[in-house]
Amino acid sequence: MSNILFTNARLIDPEAGTDERGALLVEGGRIVAQGHEIGVPEHVEVVDCGGKCLAPGIVDIGVKVGEPGERHKESFKSAGLAAAAGGVTTIITRPDTHPAIDTPEALEFVTRRAQADTPVNVLPMAALTKGRQGREMTEIGFLLDAGAVAFTDCDHVVANTKVFSRALTYARSCGALVIAHPQEPGLSEGAAATSGKFAALYGLPAVSPMAERMGLDRDIALLEMTGAKYHADQITTARALPALERAKKNGLDITAGTSIHHLTLNELDVSGYRTFFKVKPPLRSEEDRQAVIEAVRTGLIDTISSMHTPQDEESKRLPFEEAASGAVALETLLPAALRLYHAGQLDLPTLFRAMALNPARRLGLASGRMSAGTPADLVLFDPDVPFVLDRFTLKSKSQNTPFDGQRMQGRVLATYVAGLPVYRRD
Amino acid sequence: MSFAHRHLLGIEQLSPADITAILDLAETYVALNRQSAKHSDVLSGLTQINMFFENSTRTQASFELAGKRLGADVMNMSMQASSIKKGETLIDTAMTLNAMHPDLLVVRHPHSGAVDLLAQKVNCAVLNAGDGRHEHPTQALLDALTIRRAKGRLHRLNIAICGDIAHSRVARSNLILLGKMENRIRLIGPPTLVPGQFAAFGAEVYDDMREGLKDVDVVMMLRLQRERMDGGFIPSEREYYHRYGLDRDKLGLAKADAIVMHPGPMNRGVEIDGTLADDINRSVIQEQVEMGVAVRMAAMELLARNQREAA
């Protein structure tokens, strides 16, 4: 059975905010003890971590799997393998599939497919409005009963404020979490880049970073009106941060996330019209990137997501304006996040607070912690080992990563879900 | 004379020496084009394909004539009508053409960066004949040659570029070229068409045309690209003409010998007064068209030379 004693580990505990040597005992799929020294009980497998890092497995809100509709881009099987190899132990799937996950029946399909094919935990989100069209709300109650952990129209903004306010009100009565994409849809229509010198030079249709703040301001006003439980999927600009801070201070039930790409790349990386760098919202200025890192450090931004979005080569080998948005990131999330650690900007407990503890807390999951009683979803990684990323080694069916050919530092050695190994690096 | 580029994708990649080299060679073709026997054979045996994914009469004719005068076999393909409608991607189109072994590919495309993308996939030299709102390098080069011939130099001039800067690849390429040659550039237009970001290129931005035209040597007008607009950038054509149309009154603020340019096609009475456009003492618009053929001949010769050396 899954009884393991991890010894000689560098334990990253985001709850306690500690990064210390120690041992961790797992029994029956759960963590039962953590300490400097733990005596070896009987019938236990001992894993000597060799001083490497042991942290709670990543809980990734907003992963796109191509089922149903685009299985050639990513299946539950390939997404699960990629997640395991990336130290992601829980993926929270997006409903922006074809068709959208907007009925309990569609949600059951996702749950069934995920259980059959995926070694990591999969928890589905459902659409907030039918077909993600922003007109009528979905069956939030039934979907909750069927296992939806949150409701979102993904990158579609519910532009009609009456529809959105009713959906928020109804969701509140069910205790459902609504995840929105703060963006003023009129201003950002047709944009492929962030307005500024770069977009002007490259002649790309651009959106002002102000569109994010306007979207967030609107949503915050609706939260004051409705009292709903709300999470902003990606905050990527400096100008949106004061509004977020005020809303939190005023006691609204609001949290916010950001994407790993906005934390580690900026608009200049797009140079040469490289479509693998086309994401939504578009990459921002370096000042914005720095401000967002600082907001993760202080905890103003709660979560970091991969925003894993598989796209096949055909969708990306197009002129920049026409190319599809999004990047795969399940496997590169941790190595990319470690760039911030190596740059001295975020320590490991802070990173795992944003990648494991906070997302789990927000969704009411028991995981994301290192304390006794928690499910033993764990990642063992070496934060220092350098490598050059070759995108064709990724386990995703799609290999649209902006980090192809880049130097990375830090690799997953093993991943455990409920105490069972789901990935081991040879 | 060496020209170390495989393609001509933009002014961005060119050095001042490259620019001068193209213009100097173009001068020789201006002379050739004015003779009755206009033929040269520097491109003989080479195949030039003009691929226009966007409507063009003038630029396509200019490239076609340039190729023919240099002895190339020229083929025109109107891509709007053909395979794109059948769902073929740009890359597939490029691969198909590549298999026909052209030597020079002249490409216009409605999306910024599309010509760069195509150039990565073919073996021949690619000339950008305009990509989205990004670059239109031969237009900037022909403008530069026109200015150099009219003013006797291509540096330390005050040059005003007026109109729809935001949607204009001509403006971008000119801004880059004239900046590289160390001129002072003013951008003039309503703020909806001249975003403030352009100040970052070292240009001065004016929304008052009278203010902006004071003491300039060159007035470069742009076409008001109505087909590019989502609508609502300006209140009306007549208000635009009143505030930003070039007429004798506004031109009076520029230097007495200032020249007037326009890349064409013109909207008479929208961005420029019709009689002013025809005034041979001020307007060099016809000369621009003439320089266009010469500059394109020069650019193609330089690229073909590299092609032949590589072969």
Summarize the structure.
The complex is a heterodimer of chains A (426) and B (311). Chain A has 13 helices and 18 strands.
- Rg of chain A from C-alpha positions? 21 Å
H/E topology pattern of chain B: HEHEHEHEHEHEEHEHHEHH
Task: Write down the overall geometry of chain A.
Answer: globular
Tell me the fraction of residues in β-strands of chain B, as a range.
Answer: 5-15%
Summarize model confidence as the mean pLDDT of chain B: 92
Structure class of chain A: alpha/beta
Q: Number of DSSP helices of chain B?
A: 11
Query: So what's the overall shape of chain B?
Result: globular
Distance between the termini of chain A: 23 Å
Cα-to-Cα separation, first versus last residue of chain B? 19 Å
Query: Could you tell me the radius of gyration of chain B in angstroms?
Result: 19 Å
Instruction: Give the tally of β-strands of chain B.
Output: 9
Unreliable segments of chain B (pLDDT under 50, ≥5 consecutive)? none
Describe the structure.
The complex is a heterodimer of chains A (426) and B (311). Chain A has 13 helices and 18 strands. With 426 residues, chain A is α/β, with parallel strands linked by helices. In chain A, the strands form four sheets. In chain A, strands 1, 2, 3, 4, 5, 16, 17 and 18 form an eight-stranded mixed sheet that branches. A five-stranded parallel sheet of chain A has the order 9-10-13-14-15. In chain A, strands 6-7-8 form a three-stranded parallel sheet. The longest helix of chain A has 17 residues. Chain A is globular and about 65 Å long. The two termini of chain A are 23 Å apart. In chain A, 59% of the residues are buried. The model of chain A has no long low-confidence stretch (mean pLDDT 96). Chain B is α/β, with parallel strands linked by helices and 311 residues long. Helices cover 39% and strands 14% of the residues of chain B. Chain B is built from eleven helices and nine strands. In chain B, helix 2 packs across helix 11, helix 5 crosses helix 6 and helix 5 crosses helix 11. Chain B is globular. Chains A and B meet through helix 6 of A and helix 4 of B.
